[in-house]
Write a structure and sequence with these properties.
single chain, 195 residues, Alpha-Beta Plaits, 3-stranded antiparallel beta sheet, 4 helices, elongated
Length: 195
């Protein structure tokens, strides 16, 4: 009975010492405190934080939107007119679409980095910015489009007008093809046989 009593005391003290081993280890090590807002911790090289989009390189391919597992990226594009020169990306690819909407809802983003890899021009990237808390959730919806609202409306109106003109030309060509009389090919007489 007395032996069990001392065994229980020994087990109790031993479990406390095991639990306090880490505490004792740090007890005699000088503490290093980072003065956070002024001094920021160095992040690992591959840390995944806020997304950034370089719109000069975006071609509107929708690859990042399709790759996003939580649908936090919304992109709208308008086909450019033959007379429009949208320039080229830094990789030398010619731009063919106006990007009229490129929104990322960071409140939905799970920072998985899946949208970065399929981008052919490497315009979407994860940055090292990790401080972006807001009081209003609407402020977490980032709009990366460089066009103003008026420019977007102008581009959409021109594209719609161009589509109507092309549809009218196709209809006129189809009507003209229907109205043209069908001419049967002339029957050729067989060549004369030499006698």
């Amino acid at each position: 009975m007395m032996r069990k009593y001392f065994i229980d005391i020994y087990k109790t003290i031993w479990s406390i010492l095991i639990g306090m081993r880490i505490t004792f280890g740090h007890l005699f090590v000088p503490a290093v405190t980072i003065q956070y807002p002024d001094v920021k911790p160095k992040l690992p090289e591959r840390a995944r934080n806020r997304l950034y989009v370089n719109m000069d390189d975006c071609i509107g391919c929708l690859q990042c939107e399709m790759a996003c597992p939580v649908n936090c990226i919304e992109i709208e594009t308008v086909k450019s007119l033959p007379t429009d020169d949208l320039g080229t990306t830094s990789t030398g690819q010619k731009k063919k679409l106006w990007v009229t909407k490129f929104d990322i809802d960071i409140a939905k983003c799970c920072f998985c980095d899946l949208c970065v890899y399929p981008c052919p021009t490497e315009c979407i990237k994860m940055t090292d910015v990790y401080e972006f808390s807001e009081f209003d959730r609407n402020n977490l919806l980032y709009n990366f489009v460089t066009l103003t609202k008026q420019e977007v409306e102008t581009v959409k109106a021109k594209a719609a007008e161009f589509e109507k003109e092309q549809a009218a030309k196709k209809a006129a060509a189809a009507a003209q093809a229907k109205a043209a009389p069908v001419v049967a090919p002339a029957q050729q007489s067989p060549p004369a046989q030499p006698s």
